[in-house]
Design a protein that fits this description.
This protein has 492 residues and is of the alpha/beta class. The protein contains 14 helices and 17 strands. The longest helix has 25 residues. It starts with a helix and ends in a 17-residue tail after the last strand.
Length: 492
């Protein structure tokens, strides 16, 4: 399928004439430009369904991505950001020269003091092909693959509460209503698989306290983009996708006839009014019918070899676990799903952190490692970008009662850790440096916008050129008010 022809077929007469002048200018300009973009399109090994004709802007390093989102914010101090000197500061109030009047949440702003809580976990230095990298005892499997990871210690954000912070990462804006990363990718790049959505979401179960932060559909929504680009949530109970099965008493033939009739009616409506949402409904009905076959095949692990299942750990066959989500994510990559986002909740550890983070780390450590290594063994990691991280970090000072073996940590937006692997990322890299308290950035800050700009870049997209006009403004994932940069230091 020619993506340019498909795009033009969807234009109404009014839309065609409104774009005619700029289209002729663009064609003239294209004739004077190098063939980079043309070659990038022509070199696509597989047919593409949907997407914008001008994308990718340049040859991509990654064709697809997996985003492992640790909702609730894991503690960088107990996992990746080793601060051995803090042992001498136990129960000492955090110096004002370090805090510098920074904003606090209402959960700790009323405390009389801010006693420093050193991590009780042992760290070990691991060979990353360079100066070495310190990893917590909580992540032994992750530690084994540090040569494949780019660990960014200096991610920062303005948001200090969960909802705006996670919304910022997922949609590029703290305020709800904007398109998600996956929706932008679906809109811009389309899909290479006509039988599965371009953007699939899974919410994994977790071992920490069950009163975790809520997740909302808008985190994978399409915002002002056509609704066909929103993420499809894959469920662990009942039908993997709602209404996947035919209603009782309805045969597959009857279902197909009903959907064909709906498509015909919607096509008449589209010809009459040219509403893009009408086309979105047509696409969704057609996709739903195809998914009745593709999704059950996707979620069937019966043909996975035992040695592969063992890589992901004992919970891999339990629907909804993080391990199960990770192996499904790999299977989706094999089927050319553009973006898979896996949310793992329960990282909001204001109290009893040592107990709860052990369970949370156990949930994700082996499966995350298996996912990266499984992709690598199959020769897929070079074309698959994997991202791991939460919405902000945790404070070095204790929230609530502090003891030698128990403490809690509040939200901390000024520095936290994230890692990336595959998809043109340079392995064995540790980027950025924080102060002795993991409270401020000393060198090489990386903002939320920079993370999103880098993800788009690896997928062949110039973040400043992927835009959508809405309410008189050319919106983009990285925003229009502040600068965003590519984190070139972590790129191969």
């Amino acid at each position: 399928m020619d993506p340019i022809k498909e795009y033009l077929k969807l234009e109404t007469r009014r839309q065609f004439f409104s774009k005619c002048a700029s289209g002729l200018g663009a064609a003239a300009l294209a004739s004077l430009m190098p063939n980079t973009v043309v070659n990038a399109l022509e070199n696509h090994a597989k047919p593409r369904f949907g997407g914008l004709p001008e994308l990718p802007h340049f040859a991509p390093k990654a064709k697809r991505a997996i985003y492992l989102f640790m909702s609730g914010a894991p503690s960088q101090l107990d996992l990746y950001d080793y601060k051995p000197n803090m042992g001498e500061w136990f129960d000492v109030d955090l110096p004002e020269s370090v805090r510098m009047g920074q904003r606090l949440t209402t959960m700790t702003s009323g405390q009389d003091k801010f006693p420093i809580a050193p991590s009780i976990f042992e760290f070990k230095k691991h060979d990353n092909g360079g100066d070495g990298v310190w990893i917590s005892e909580l992540l032994p499997h992750t530690a084994s693959m540090v040569k494949d990871l780019a660990i960014i210690k200096t991610v920062h954000t303005e948001a200090i509460n969960h909802d705006p912070a996670i919304t910022f990462f997922c949609t590029g804006d703290e305020s709800p209503g904007k398109p998600s990363l996956g929706a932008w990718l679906s809109y811009g790049l389309g899909s290479e698989n006509q039988n599965l959505p371009a953007f699939i979401v899974m919410n994994a179960t977790w071992s920490g306290p069950k009163g975790a932060q809520a997740l909302y559909n808008r985190l994978w929504g399409s915002g002002f983009l056509p609704s066909e680009h929103q993420g499809v949530l894959l469920r662990s109970q009942g039908d993997p996708v709602l209404f996947l099965s035919n209603p009782e008493g309805v045969s597959e033939k009857a279902r197909k006839q009903m959907l064909d009739t709906l498509v015909a009616l919607n096509k008449e409506l589209y010809e009459e009014v040219g509403d893009p949402e009408t086309h979105a409904r047509i696409s969704q009905y057609e996709m739903a019918f195809r998914m009745q076959t593709s999704v059950p095949e996707l979620t069937d692990l019966s043909k996975e070899p035992d040695h592969v299942l063992e890589m992901y750990g004992p919970e891999v066959k339990v629907p909804g676990t993080f391990a199960n989500c990770c192996i499904l994510a790999r299977r989706m990559m094999e089927r050319d799903v553009r973006l898979v986002q896996v949310f793992h909740r329960g990282w909001d550890q204001h109290g009893d952190l040592p107990k709860n983070i052990r369970n949370q780390a156990r949930d994700i450590d082996q499966p995350s490692t298996a996912l990266v290594q499984d992709l690598k063994q199959r020769g897929m990691l070079d074309e698959t970008l994997v991202v791991w991280g939460g919405e902000f970090g945790r404070t070095v000072y204790c929230q609530g009662k502090l003891s030698r073996d128990n403490y809690g940590r509040d939200h901390h937006p000024k520095c936290f850790t994230r890692w990336m692997a595959g998809g043109g990322i340079k392995g064995g890299v540790v980027h950025g440096e924080t102060d002795d308290f993991s409270y401020n950035i000393v060198r090489d800050p990386v903002h939320v916008r920079d993370i999103n700009a880098t993800i788009l870049h690896q997928l062949g997209i110039d973040h400043e050129r992927l835009t959508f006009k809405f309410q008189g403004l050319d919106h983009r994932l990285t925003g229009v008010e502040e600068e965003a940069r590519i984190v070139n230091e972590i790129l191969a």
